[in-house]
Design goal:
11-stranded mixed beta sheet; Amidase signature (AS) enzymes; alpha/beta; globular
Amino acid sequence: MLSTLGSIREKLGSGEISSEELVQNCLNTIQGQDEKIGAFLQVHGEKALESAREIDRRRQQGEAMGALAGIPIAIKDNINIEGFHTTCASRMLENFISPYDATVIQKLKAAGAIFLGKTNMDEFAMGSSTEHSALRKTVNPCAPSCVPGGSSGGSTAAVAAGMAPLALGSSTGGSIRQPAAFCGVVGLKPTYGRVSRYGLVAFGSSLDQIGPIASDVPGCAELLQVIAGHDPFDSTSAPNPVEDFSAWLGQPLKGLRIGLVSEFETEGLQPEIQAALTRATAFLKAQGAECVTIQLPHTEYAIPTYYLIATAEASSNLARFDGVRYTKRAEGIRNLQEMYTQSRNQGFGMEVKRRILLGTYCLSSGYYEGYYLNAQRVRTKIIEDYQQAFQKCDLILAPTTPTSAFEIGEKTQDPVAMYLSDIFTVPANLAGIPAISFPSGKDQKNRPIGLQLMAPFFGEAKMLGVADHLHRHFAAPS
């Protein structure tokens, strides 16, 4: 299986491989491995092959081709594709078929991408391990006894296992970067508003963002190039022009200022991750970059702030799943109240119920001011921390996660411990800034390690350029 987007495009362009052969290779890999890994909830095999044959026909006739013509891609199952199931890995939506395409799907279709299928996730994107899927268990291809991370664990596992060269995930509090770090792939959360959310099933509307997953940084850059841009169907979509995200790839690092967060130097940081951070810092300095210490003083409040805002928004967003229209409806009900209660009780899993209850509580009369509004005030402080930090540096370098992938079942009985696995990713989501995780070696148990870069609003291009340097450095033989 050809791993990088660049190598695949080169082979397609030279005629060494056809799109049909490429898609068939992906489907064969899925058939051979996914019973054990569990990355996909649905595989659109026949449709994918049909689309590949059409791309091959057009290529042979010399027609102009889109940027991703004939390239297979996996899609997280909270992003709508017309005519296919969108389950969000929940019993509540297991029979729902989308009547329309998300904007990112429309853009991918226009670019000629081929959809392999929909990937597993934590139910309604609520989780950090993909263990909260109601439909299937996913394991980490790099460490089968471990979780792949979450909530985009199916998408990152698919790329890590060579089932798909590209994938889309979504991030509310780190759901692209954290599983990317656990599975040894590249995952990017764009600036909030950079990519349309139209057609993404909402979890936390002020936090959610769709982003690319690939085996290397250039692949992420090219996929972001296709899906980014203003969308009139999304009121939070930014009008900023889409620049060339590959422009900084290969550019020298001399003169750049890289921030190192003093608050991220915690006792719980795995030694191998600290060593990777030290190695990355030494490389940057050797390339002529300046590394400066910065402060993000409100970081300690990020997790509680996030779990107030995200659960409050989830409580509101998930109120629409009531058993009346397109969701699961309980049987044998006697009245309307019982239909609401039993349908939601049977349709939602425990983690989703927990977050709905937390969110409803903090939005309730007498608690709204003390919890939700105060959380929004702290969020503003976190945003201000980043704004001040970026006056001293161009980018921020940090661990993606405090540890490498943890064992399956290790944290399912301790929600707080599970939530703390996102301690380094949540702040960027609260601030709305872009961030990318890239593979940075392995620990003593041969489990992948990830570091991340964060940039100011709409600073993806420079961030991608530096991430590419660092990823290549860690991938090179030592």
